[in-house]
Amino acid sequence: MEVLVKYESGFRFSAVCRGYTVTTGRGENGNDKRDGMWPAQLFEASIGMCIGGYVAKFCKEQGIPYDDMTIELSRRTQAELSRTTRIDAKIHLDAKLSQEQKQGILQAADCCHITDSIREGMQIVCSLADAKVDNG
Predict the structure, then answer these.
(1) Distance separating alpha carbons of residues 39 and 61, to the nearest angstrom
(2) What pLDDT score was predicted for residue 85?
(3) pTM value?
(4) Cα–Cα distance, 51 to 62 (Å, whole number)
């Protein structure tokens, strides 16, 4: 198991992986203000962080400054389908770049594992675990 998602309370969940925890949801009664990112925002954030890792690696190898890199993500949805149809990721680097460097950065960004998984038609298969019943 890589990630364990656990119900906390109300509409709040936590995800734990390798000692790190991320929380999303709403308060106890589900009507309180959100106290974390929405799951869709965490999805966007994971894409941005993945892209950032590949871009940082490319920039480091090419000697391009990237300490101030930011990535803006914008999600487009189709309400009648209740799903995200497009995510735009705009990479900001405060460096003068040649056309070749720009192309290399965009190629590196396109190598993101998550983006690649979605593009290739990733499957998600749900199953129901057996209940833990105490027969004592």
Answers:
(1) 33
(2) 87
(3) 0.82
(4) 17
Amino acid symbol at 52: G
pLDDT lower than 50: segments of the chain = none
**In the chain, how many H helices and how many E strands?**
3, 5
CA geometry: angle at 11 spanning 5 and 16, to 5°? 20
Cα–Cα distance, 62 to 57 (Å, whole number): 9
* pLDDT at res. 78: 83
Q: Check residue 32 and give its pLDDT.
A: 62
Do 110 and 120 touch, CB atoms closer than 8 A?
no
Q: Is 24 exposed, middle or buried (0-12, 13-18, 19+ CB in 10 A)?
A: buried
Q: What is the dihedral of CA 46, 49, 55, 57, to 10 degrees?
A: -110
